[in-house]
Amino acid sequence: MSVTKEAVFKMGEAKKEWLDVAVSALDKAYVPYSRFPVGACLVTKEGKVYQGLNIENASYGLSNCAERTAFFKAVSEGERDFQHLVIAGHTPEPISPCGACRQVMVEFCEPTMPVTLLGDDGVMMETTIEQLLPYSFNNKDLPG
């Protein structure tokens, strides 16, 4: 997968690193069962970058998605403030995150935080957390 000049122009040259981090994770993904690698790049408000990749397990339910891997790495190191998420996959259209990943995004991100979805040939879509999971369940819905 290569990132097109149009995609870089659309995001801005400064954000090219984020695309590259997500794309490079595709080669590191552990996907012996599905053979469907996914890469992610989560960026803190201070600009620190966390790479995520999907990790499968023979007991399928124990597998972990790229997006959640990036979030869990960042949160385990004390990060709580994020500015952008890039998700890359070998899909003809921009890749779409699963429901579990969308719920984790809601837990840790502002509804307006940008998310870039990247497919093969640099096809890209810009969205937000709120657009990915409208009317989400969050801590405001809990009693107390």
From TrEMBL:
Pfam families per the UniProt record, alphabetical: dCMP_cyt_deam_1 (PF00383)
CDD domains to which the protein is assigned, alphabetical: cytidine_deaminase
Residues of the CMP/dCMP-type deaminase domain: 13-140
Domain of life: Bacteria
Keywords: Hydrolase, Metal-binding, Zinc
Catalyzed reaction equations: cytidine + H2O + H(+) = uridine + NH4(+); 2'-deoxycytidine + H2O + H(+) = 2'-deoxyuridine + NH4(+)
GO molecular function: cytidine deaminase activity
Cofactor requirements of the protein: Zn(2+)
Its job: This enzyme scavenges exogenous and endogenous cytidine and 2'-deoxycytidine for UMP synthesis.
Family to which this protein belongs: Belongs to the cytidine and deoxycytidylate deaminase family.
Protein name, UniProt field: Cytidine deaminase
